[in-house]
Amino acid sequence: MDDELNITYITLDGHVEVHKYRYLYFVIMLTVYILIICCNFTIVCLIWIHNNLHEPMYIFIAALLINSVVSTSNIYPKLLIDFMSEKQIISYSTCLFQFFLFYSLGSSEFLLLAVMAYDRYVSICKPLQYPTIMTKTTVSIFLCLAWLVPACHIAVLVIMSVDMKLCNLTLRGIFCNNSIYNLHCVSSRVRSIFGVITVIITALFPLLFILFTYTRILIITYRSCRNVRKKAAQTCLPHLLVLISFSCLCAYDIIIVRLGSEFPKTARLIMTLQMILYHPLFNPIIYGLKMKEISKHLKKLFCQTKAIW
Fold first, then answer.
1. Does residue 199 have a pLDDT over 60?
2. Residue 189 phi, psi (nearest 5)
3. Domain interval for residue 134
């Protein structure tokens, strides 16, 4: 506790031998961070530049990738500072802000994937109505709701946590996630109930909607010709791969707080790194390789770069 400024600092205790391997950690994380930004923004720029990619499906992909970069930027700069610092600490107010961004953007990813599933459903199952349903206004409303609904829910949870008394100033993690609840002296029943409601609205409902939508697509395409099945597989498979990957990592994040100290520190660190290393790079690779139009423009870009060099 800083008595002069009345700031409460929390120790991030999730690092493993950070003083011994600080330079190695720093180089690896900085390299990955640069790769994440470059890979994601390369595809975003391709979607922005090429007119044939100005369709709802590609706009939603661009939104998902931007969401991923912002989420990564919420964690990586602080991590890089911690690797080079003697003490890995963070103020409680900054910790809550990091918590807010981490979960609001994470929930937004579920909602964006749900919107993308709906877009594919309309495109494959109702192709004649697609232009009238997926208008620019509809796309804009979907994007706004995907970011605003989770932000409002997580903001309420943060406000509930601001004035709660802390009995523990050591966080078992390398950034502020739901482990911050273990810092409080008493658990709030109201906050717990609202937290469950938030998970249901921003994660469970979108997940069920996605599963329902893709089941409908599967049933309809099964009855259709081979070309329709091929188109459905090309556009739906990347979304499903991203959904499976993200759902597994979110399940880990929810479970880890329940296990508490029973989970080994090294294993906890490895799983946390999976969340912030693997998934932000997984999205652009999947969409870059599996989406035919994006892949085509990427090949052209690399060929032009080769020709220059």
1. yes
2. -65, -40
3. 9-306
Listed residue (89, 97, 79) closest to 8, CA to CA: 89
Q: How many CA atoms lie within 13 A of 9 on its CB side?
A: 11
Residues 6+ apart with CB under 8 A from 203: 107, 110, 250
**Amino acid at the residue 275:** M
β-strands 9-12, 170-171 pairing: parallel
20-73 per-position pLDDT tens digit = 889 999 999 999 999 999 999 999 999 999 888 899 989 999 999 999 999 999
Does residue 182 fall inside a structural domain?
yes
User: How many independent structural domains does the chain possess?
Assistant: 1
CA distance 156 to 158: 5
- pTM value is 0.88
Give the integer Cα–Cα distance in Å for 123 and 7. Answer: 53
DSSP character for 51? G
Q: Is residue 36 part of a domain?
A: yes
**Contact by Cβ (8 Å): 170, 96:** no
> Does 3 map to a domain?
no
Residue 53 belongs to domain with CATH number: 1.20.1070.10
Question: 300 lies in a domain?
Answer: yes
